[in-house]
Amino acid sequence: MGARQDRFDEWVGAGLLEASTAEALRRYEEEHGRIPGPPSQTQPPPETVAPADDGQQEGRPRALALVGEILGYFGAVLAITAISFLVSQSWSSIPIPGRVVLVSVLTAVVCVAGVAAGRSPQDAAQRLASALLLATVVCAGWLAWVSVDAAGVRDEAAALWTFSVATAVAITIYVFRRKALAQLAMLAGAIGVVAMTLETLDLTDRSVPGLALTCLGVAWVALGATRALAPAPPALIAGGLVAVFGANNMGFDDPTRGLALAAGVVLAVSMLALAVLRRDLITLMIPGGIGLLTMVPQLIEHLVGGAMATWAAVLVTGVVLILVAVRMLRAPRSD
């Protein structure tokens, strides 16, 4: 069992398995005789005799891990609060090199703490590591902003550099740790890069920003659906919401309002259809439903006008969503 257990620990450390899942797999393999179980109780070696309070011994590391996770979050809140106060009181009086050193040290401390927490197979430690590495992305962006500010770069160029550095750090973290928070940090950074690129190129008029966000969201959903981004549910939900938000923003431009809203409704219906047809994409129900509820009334109001028609559209949308839900609940469940 030692060799197989080492592989399980390796997979847990790489973020491919949760610790609880690895333990369940070990028990399953032992029960079916694929790997040897613990030594027989008839002739136990003196050093392997289990203590009388084995249940307590097993529960103690989990309790300690949970306490450690809570302390880690509490310490992070205290540190962030203290840093915010100190920075607000003395930031203007700190020389530029001192600012760079201060933020660099903070970024390094948070990053090292996140990497150290990620080496533990405990679920609590993995959650804490994800939070600390997300904070690392934020600190890296702050460091980039301080650096370009020291170099005299301002406005859109500084913001573009800040988001680019934060996105690059998020991508690096995600390559080694395919977790939901790292994935969401990548998406947030990508949104910032797209927005600042459009600002730099002065392409903020009409429906260009909304179209760009819609394309980014659709691409993110496609990557999640093909499992290029894992875990898939956060990619489907977050990407779908970005696409819906972009389509809704296109609807604010009067000349193309009707066309943009119609395209947004088609996009929302497509998400709902995929959620019904493919159970592995069921989380698309969330952005699809939100998109339908936000854009159908606007489209009806734009085409027909009047409160009665708008609320009739809301009623029809609600009935459609109920029918879709009933259809999904009646579908046979897979194993």
TrEMBL record:
Whether Endoplasmic reticulum counts among this entry's keywords is no
Q: Give the matching InterPro entries.
A: DUF2157
Keyword line: Membrane, Transmembrane, Transmembrane helix
What the entry lists under Pfam families is as follows: DUF2157 (PF09925)
Q: Does the keyword Membrane apply?
A: yes
Segments of this protein annotated with the region Disordered: 27-58
* TM helices/strands, residue ranges: 70-90, 96-116, 128-146, 158-176, 181-198, 258-277, 306-326
Q: Where is the DUF2157 domain?
A: 9-181
Compositional bias annotation for Pro residues:
36-48
Q: Mind telling me what this protein is named?
A: DUF2157 domain-containing protein
